[in-house]
Every structure is written in C-alpha cells, then in structure tokens.
Design a protein that fits this description.
AhpD-like, 9 helices, mainly alpha
Length: 163
C-alpha cells in the first residue's frame, strides 16, 4: 500500500473519510450516486464499469459485480467485456457501452470528432443516457485508478448498495 494506514483503521474509511474528509465524503457520495440513481440497464452499466476496471487494473473493481433486484450479470460476462468487439453475448447498447468506456479511458481526444461513433451512440442512447454513462465512466476511471495507485484496491470493501 502506498499510503500509511494507522493500525486498526479500515483503509478505505480512513483514506476517503478521515484523511481528506471534505473531498473524500463528496467523492464517496458521487461514487454511490452512480449506482443508486442510474437509469441504465444492468448489462450496459456493467459492460462500461468492467471495461474501466480492466483498464485501471483495480483488483476490487474487477471482482465486484453490480446487483439489482437480486440479479447480476452471468459469470462469463467479464470475459465477454474483454472481447467486446467480437463477442456475440452483447446487444448493440452493451457493445457500445464497452467501446465508449474504453475510448473514454484511452482515447478521449479521438472521440471528439468521430461522427460515426456518435451516430451509433445517438441511435442507441438518449442524450440523458450518454451524459449519465459519461459521468459513471468518469467516476469509475477516477476512483478505480485512485484506489489502485494508492494500493487500496487490494483491501477495498464497500458497503452494499441498491440501484
């Protein structure tokens, strides 16, 4: 771990809550809001989230599966996300979510003028959904990287949430 955690303290609680309470509390609220207030379907939500987890290398995020109403994506879903270009397990929205997440993380400048991509996105997602997906991806990108870089991802335990 790259941050010193006092003995007996929960690493996540300490870093996010005690070490920087003004920022950490707001960041935590944003992170939870992505799950609690999403209007996106579970499959496209998880495709984007898992693609960011794969890119970030966040151990906790790679193991996490969002649950809604007792449902989670199938066990092979993460492998399908890795193969988003060629898998037959995805519909167009799910494939676009994985593509958008990858490009957002690795080539955001290339998204700006890609009219073909945006034509596909707007054919399958409303403006509201595009903004929501963008904010969700931004949250996962930032906080997954933060936890991985600081070494918190190996000890991360989040409270359960509902969506």
């Amino acid at each position: 771990m790259n941050i010193d955690i006092p003995e007996g303290k929960d690493a996540i609680g300490y870093v996010w809550g005690e070490l920087v309470p003004g920022i950490g509390t707001a960041a935590s609220a944003f992170s939870l809001a992505v799950y609690e207030h999403t209007t996106l379907g579970l499959r496209e939500f998880e495709a984007a989230r898992l693609r960011i987890a794969q890119i970030n290398g966040c151990l906790f995020c790679l193991d996490w599966r969002t649950e809604r109403d007792g449902e989670k994506v199938e066990d092979a879903f993460a492998d399908a996300v890795t193969q988003w270009r060629t898998t037959d397990a995805f519909d167009d929205r799910t494939r676009l979510a994985a593509e958008y997440a990858e490009r957002y993380a690795l080539d955001h400048h290339g998204l700006d003028g890609d009219d073909g991509f945006w034509s596909r996105m707007t054919a399958h997602y409303s403006q509201r959904e595009i903004v929501e997906l963008s904010m969700s991806i931004g949250s996962w990108l930032a906080f997954g990287r933060l936890n991985h870089v600081l070494g918190l991802d190996a000890v991360c335990v989040l409270p359960p949430h509902t969506a």
